[in-house]
Design a protein that fits this description.
Blueprint (H helix, E strand, L loop, with lengths): L1 H21 L1 H10 L5 H18 L2 H9 L2 E2 L5 H20 L6 H15 L3 E2 L1 H30 L8 H28 L10 H25 L10 H22 L5 H16 L6 H29 L1
Antiparallel strand pairs: 1-2
């Protein structure tokens, strides 16, 4: 394997660990915040489902990223490590600056940037298809968030049955956790495949271990900091948003073999849920800031990975 291969594995595990911790709030924040599940059970359930999704439901997405963003039979592990390092650095930087971005979009354009630097053929049609999915996913989530919120409002006794609502929230958080494993593990380990570091199933399992470790070791502070600034949520809105997030992203992963942003799907679902309550429920300045952050991610990922790939040659 060599030193560059070992470096790639270490970077990928660190990236997966960071993502596992980062997404605890997006997946189990609402069930925990409403008291529907305790802290340790929330983290344990999420870790198990993240590992399951990464190991068994991620393979089409791993192939999309590993084989179909750039056309290459063999990618040097050093170049793959440079791509992961660029995506990891930018994700961490934007998180520290509290600029909302998509790890997925950073990674895809980082792969494209490295491909350009190494004179490899970039599959722009694949990227265009992904961009269409990234645009459609939050729009579909808006519509479903609106519809599911109204549906739960009209479910007999829903708002008066805390136990029923709590179980629905935990189930929705579990679905989001399973989806996150299937959707996001490719950010860390998809490049194992063209770098010939591991096969498809091992890439999913190794990345899943990193994600689960992040949830269990550093998920608590992020879970306890959960706050949704986009809309002021009630129980029906929270349940609808969490459920829609999982359904939209999992449909893209399993149905299309494409991955999309968990956070963007959640933002869309929350916006739809807020619109079901009226325009005044939505914080439009926060939403505009989020949209600006989403525009920054692809450009910066492409540029930084281009520079990193050149220096790694």
């Amino acid at each position: 394997m060599g030193l560059s291969g070992a470096l790639l594995i270490l970077l990928a595990l660190a990236f997966a660990w960071s993502m596992g911790a980062h997404y605890t709030g997006a997946c189990m924040g609402m069930p925990y915040a409403t008291g529907s599940i305790g802290l340790r059970p929330a983290l344990l359930v999420m870790a198990i489902l993240v590992m399951t999704g990464a190991s068994f439901l991620s393979h089409r997405v791993l192939l999309t990223v590993g084989r179909h963003v750039i056309e290459v039979d063999s990618l040097h592990p050093g170049a793959a490590a440079a791509i992961i390092a660029a995506a990891f650095f930018l994700t961490t930087l934007y998180n520290r600056l509290k600029i909302p971005t998509s790890t997925i979009q950073i990674l895809v354009f980082a792969v494209a940037g490295a491909g350009l630097a190494l004179h490899l053929r970039v599959q722009w049609l694949t990227i265009a298809r992904l961009v269409v999915v990234w645009i459609l996913a939050p729009l579909v989530a808006i519509a479903l968030g609106w519809a599911f919120t109204l549906l739960l409002d009209h479910l007999p006794g829903f708002h008066g049955k805390a136990a029923l609502a709590g179980k629905l929230l935990v189930a929705a958080g579990g679905l989001a956790s399973l989806t996150m494993g299937a959707n996001d593990v490719s950010n860390a380990t998809a490049l194992f495949i063209p770098a010939h570091v591991s096969g498809l199933y091992a890439a999913g399992a190794i990345g899943g271990l990193g994600l689960a470790a992040g949830v269990l070791t550093w998920g608590r502070p992020l879970l306890e900091r959960v706050a949704f600034e986009i809309v002021r949520v009630d129980l029906a809105m929270a349940s609808a948003a969490q459920l829609v997030q999982g359904l939209v992203v999992l449909s893209a992963v399993v149905g299309l073999g494409d991955f999309t942003s968990m956070n963007q799907a959640l933002v869309g679902a929350l916006l739809g849920a807020g619109l079901a309550r009226g325009r005044n429920t939505v914080s439009w300045p926060v939403l505009k800031a989020i949209l600006k952050g989403w525009a920054v991610a692809p450009v910066s990922g492409l540029a930084l990975a281009y520079l990193c790939a050149i220096t790694s040659r």
